Amino acid sequence: MLGCRTSVIVSSFNQPNTLRLVLAGLAAQDDLDFELIIADDGSDLDTLELVRAFSKTAPFKVEFVTQEHKGFRKAQILNAAIRKSAGDQLIFIDGDCIPFLNFVRLHKRALRPGSFVAAGYARIRLEDARLQTPEGVAARAHERFMTRSRRMMFRWVDLCSAFYLLLNRKDRPKVKGGNFSVDRASLLAVDGFDEAYENLGQSDSDLRNRLRNYGCRGISVWGKIFVSHLDHQLDPRRCEKSVLRKKVDPELYRASKKRVKALKGLSTHPQGNVIG
Q1: Which residues are CB-neighbours of 236 under 8 A, at least 6 positions away?
Q2: The pairing of beta strand 89-94 with beta strand 6-12
Q3: What pTM was estimated for this model as a whole?
C-alpha cells in the first residue's frame, strides 16, 4: 500500500439515479481517508445539484469537474479530474458502479509504486437495480449480487492474468474503467488517458497497454475488490445517442500496444471547468 494521499475519481453523465447510490457507497466506506472528484461529461443541472447537496454532509472533500457535452468524451473529463486531484494514488469508478464498503481500503492495500490495479464487478439487472436505496447501500444490500459462483469466476480471471503476465502479455490484466487504480507517477509518465478516443470505447484498455509498455506492474484483483454495476436503463438519459460509442479504430488501439505516451493526453488539453 502506498503511504500517501488518495483521490477517488467518479466518471458520470446524466445518471443521477445511479450516482446517488454510488455516492452513498463511498460515504459508507470503512476507510474514509480520501478526496472525491466527480468527472462530469456535461450532465444536466440535476447532477450538479445532487453533488452539491451530497458535499454538504460528505465525510471527505468533494470536487466537481465538468465540461460542455459534445458526445462521449470520458477520457477528456477524466484527465481534467486528474489535474484537479491531489492524490498520489488514484482510484477510478464509474457513476453506475456501487462500491463494496471495503473498496477504497482494498485498493489502497493492493496498489504499489509503479503499478496499477484491475478489479471486478457484479451486474445488477434493472428490476433489482430499481430496488436499491442509499440506506440499503449503507447496509451492504448491493453486495449480495456478488454470488459465490461469480467470485469463483473472477478468481479464475486473476489466475489467467497471472499466467499471461508471466508470458509478458502487454494486454493483461483485464481492465474495466469502473474499477481500477494506479499510482500518480506512473499515470503522469504515460500522459494520462488518450483523448484521441473521443466517442470511442477502450480508452481504459489503451491506458493499460501504455502503462505496461512504460514498465508498470499490472495487479489483477478481480476476485477480491468489487463494485455492483447497475443497469444503464435506471437513468434513460444516460442511454441517449450522444453518448453511444462508435467502434474503435483497430489501428488506433493496436498502436497503443507499442506506445507509452498518449497521442492527446494530460499535457495537451486545457483544464476543465471546476464547479463547487
Answers
A1: none
A2: parallel
A3: 0.91
